[in-house]
Amino acid sequence: MNPMNAFKLKNLLDRFLENHPKLPPFFRAAVGEVREGTVIEIKVISPDNKTIISNLKINEEDMAILGELKELK
Fold it and tell me: DSSP letter at 59?
């Protein structure tokens, strides 16, 4: 990744998290519950009440990836 794009991505993420301060504590609480077999569901409700739901089940490889991401701090 281009270093300038990485810097821009970091700034955008920081702004997003400033706009949604409850998100980081939620993720910190949820990460302790994630293990192989965990189902993560995402639900989006648009202003005109259209709903889209998707989910994924965490597998062994996902856990290895999450472990590597934790080390990037």
Answer: -
Q: Three-state SS for 43?
A: strand
Can you read off the two tokens belonging to residue 13? 């993420």
Q: Strand pairing partners for 57? A: 39
pTM for the predicted model, two decimal places = 0.72
**Among residues 52, 15, 58, 54, which one has the least CA distance to residue 35?**
58
- Paired tokens of 68: 């590597």
User: Mind listing the pLDDT tens digit of every residue in the chain (73 residues)?
Assistant: 788 898 999 999 999 999 999 999 998 899 889 999 999 999 999 999 999 999 999 999 999 998 898 888 6
Cα radius of gyration rounded to whole Å, the chain: 15
**DSSP secondary-structure letter at 37?**
T
60/37 Cα distance (integer angstroms): 9
